Amino acid sequence: MTNSSTKNILSSIPASVLKIGALLSVVVLVVWALPKHNQQLSYKYEEGRVWTYPTLIAEFDFPIYKPDSLYNRQLSEAMQAYAPCFVAKGSVGNMYVLSAADMQMLIDNNYNYIHYINRRHISSVIPLTDIYTPRSAYEKTQKEWSPNLEFDSITSQKLYDNIHLSVSPTEGAVLHSQTIIEYGEVVDAQTCLILQSLERTLKDKDISERHRFNSTAATTILIFFFISCFAAYLIIFRKSIWQQKRAVLFFSVVTALMTVGTAFVLRFFASSPTVVYAIPFVWIPILIRVFYDSRTAFILHITNVFVVSLMVNEPFLFILLQIPAGMVAVVALKDLTRRAQLAITAVYVLITYTVIYSLYYLMLTGTIANVSWHPYLCFAINAVLIIGVYTLIYIFEKMFRLLSSITLIELSNLNSDLMHSFADKAPGTFQHSLQVSSLASDAAKSIGAKALLVRTAALYHDIGKMTHADNYTENQAEGHNPLLLMTNSEAAQAVIAHVTEGVRLARRNGLPEIIINFIKSHHGTTLVRYFYNSEVNRLRQENPEAEKELNLSDYQYPGPRPATKEEAILMMADAVEARARSLNSYTEESLRQMVEQMVTLQMQDGQFALTPLTFSDVERIKQSFCERLLSIHHHRIQYPTIKG
Q1: In degrees rounded to 5, what are phi and psi of residue 88?
Q2: What region does 98 belong to: left with phi over 0, alpha with psi -120 to 50, or beta?
Q3: Second label for 614, Cα 20 to 30 Å away, from 124, 191, 384, 578?
Q4: How far is 85 from 154, CA to CA, in rounded Å?
Q5: Cα–Cα nearest to 80, from 125, 17, 33
Q6: Is the pTM of this model over 0.85?
Q7: Which DSSP string corresponds to 167-192?
Q8: 127 upstream amide cis, omega within 30 of 0
Q9: What is the chain's Cα-based Rg?
């Protein structure tokens, strides 16, 4: 699906419906994908290990089942009293004769005797050595014999069932509300037997269905609560992000992929619960940090960790490992500007996992000598997979039209073909863009805005001037100005065209939509003052009444007005830098007056009404402009010449 089609689909859905629907979809998907551990005891335990879960209390009565080895041994001993039953078939006399098939059955099952039930229903035991087949009876008596004993399947089955019933598979019971094991206790042999019995009982259909419903309902409420808390964070502390449908959809997709993916991994590797530590959960804080900010990255990471903790076998240990790992990832990856940073972050996360896991078991047992090596192997796999997030950054960047620091650095490369063409076709505008880039990035830093974004956008904001470079004064040879041959309205339209032409060139060269937004908004809806004022003066001299019929739209940029702090900073920097070129002297006073005048004019025109800029932000931006312009246009000493 192309970016344009994705944009059309998203724009056709109301913002509130899309955002709430996306978050609710995460809840539904996670509940659906949860491992069906409610059909069995959802704890992993081992005899001799410490119970690291909350105190377990019986919710219903259930029997304590004997170990299979004990039950099988007792049953085997009891079954020694079993032998098939036979009844008389005609006259028996002193010769017990069975069919060859019945004899073979006795031999195959290692029976040494049979139960003979006579006509008076009195049972007696006959050794197998005293029983004949028709052939062996003939060999013994030289007489023809027919089978005179017949297998009694009904009586034999009853005897078999009675022996099985005589051996109980249970030994005692656990009553409702009885404490099975408390947190921190060691799982001994008897407790292990009780836990196994509870697992076996839970497989009963009626109990399983009741517990499955209760468990699913509670899990759904918890997951909904966690997701709602994250949404509340966005609404209260990151309102600008919450208002972006694309951002909320991105958060939902990332969370769903990670949680649902984890659920399926846990299902597939149900016999190896520590495999969960091989899953790189720090992908989420890394992805969010690259595209947004550290706090949002960490909050979403905590949300994801709490949701996944509902699936794992040791939730406390899982949370204890994952939250610090996420903190380390966010801190280590303040700005992803180099690929090596991912490798460094992976090493830090690996160390965090290893140290916390070792200290945890040292705290519980007093030694780490018996700790399994398998979790450490999973930590190492996790660290390797962290580096793979680089591919995900690229995928999500294209899917959701986001912009990472790495892409911005690549776009700001002045050796690219587009920048080379820009410098060749419009050298004056290119130099202007470099100066604006410097001014804007310093100003962004002064108020905590995205300096790299505005610096990169400034390089491209005037690329539309490449098409007709000589229409703009910074590219004109002395005495040559094509705009003087046009009417004021035509000249204004020629100047305004660099915005639409810039958008066209940007799309043709595959620039991100965020950069294109800067191109669209860097003049907002301001007027091309030079030609507008010239036209007003001309009309007042020639025909004052005609001024009323002046079409303002002929001299006005199409907009939109800036919507972000960064777009507003670029608009200010562009105007200030262009105006600075026309100053006769570069004193601190003249520069401050010029900056004040230009920014105030834009504010009075309402160009920053849609941005979250504060008056304090504007003052810091103006101060940054003045300091930067003074450093650019500082006074230089005059070099002496050699006299005589």
Answers
A1: -70, 140
A2: beta
A3: 578
A4: 9
A5: 125
A6: no
A7: S-SEEEEE-TT-EEE-TT-B--HHHH
A8: no
A9: 42
3-state secondary structure of 132: strand
CATH number of 405-632: 1.10.3210
What whole-number distance in Å separates Cα of residue 19 and Cα of residue 241?
A: 11
Distance separating alpha carbons of residues 587 and 572, to the nearest angstrom: 20
Torsion over CA of 308, 312, 315 and 321, rounded to 10 degrees?
-70
- Using CA atoms, how far residue 252 sits from 16, 77, 120, 308, in Å, is 14, 61, 81, 15
What's the rounded Cα separation, in Å, for the pair 474 and 432? 8
Query: In Å, what is the CA distance from 100 to each residue of 73, 105, 106, 592?
Result: 32, 9, 10, 119
Closest-CA residue to 554 (of 570, 534, 568, 540): 534
Closest CA to 430 of 456, 460, 409: 460
Q: What is the pLDDT of residue 34?
A: 80
pLDDT band at 207 (very low <50, low <70, confident <90, very high): low
Residue 316 burial (CB < 10 Å; 0-12/13-18/19+)?
middle
Closest CA to 379 of 359, 344, 355, 353: 353
CA distance 190 to 110: 36
Least Cα distance to 382 among 352, 340, 338, 420 occurs for 352
Residue 490 near residue 475, CB atoms below 8 Å: no
Cα(71)–Cα(81) distance, rounded to whole angstroms? 16
In the chain, ranges of CATH 1.10.3210 domains: 405-632
Q: Residue 23: what residue type?
A: L
> How far does Cα 317 stand from its chain's mean position?
20
Tokens in use for 150? 């017949």
- The β-bridge relationship of strands 56-57 and 149-151 is unpaired
Confidence check: pLDDT of 231 > 70: yes
Q: What is the number of other CB atoms lying within 10 angstroms of the CB of residue 551? A: 9
Per-residue pLDDT tens over the stretch 456-494: 999 999 999 999 999 888 888 776 888 888 999 999 999
Cα–Cα distance for residue pair 250/244, rounded to 1 Å: 10
| DSSP track, 73-129 | HHHHHHGGG---EEEE-S--TT-EE--HHHHHHHHHTT--EEEEE-TT--EEEEEGG
- For the record, the structure tokens of 420 come out as 């080379």
Q: What is the DSSP string of 339-370?
A: THHHHHHHHHHHHHHHHHHHHHHHHHHS--TT
pLDDT at 31 over 60: yes
Return the amino acid letter for 26: V
The answer to whether 452 and 405 have CB atoms below 8 angstroms apart is yes
* Angular region, 355: left φ>0, alpha ψ -120 to 50, beta rest: alpha
Residue in this structure with the two tokens 């921190």, named with its chain if needed: 184
Q: Alpha helices, DSSP H only, in 543-614?
A: 565-580, 588-604
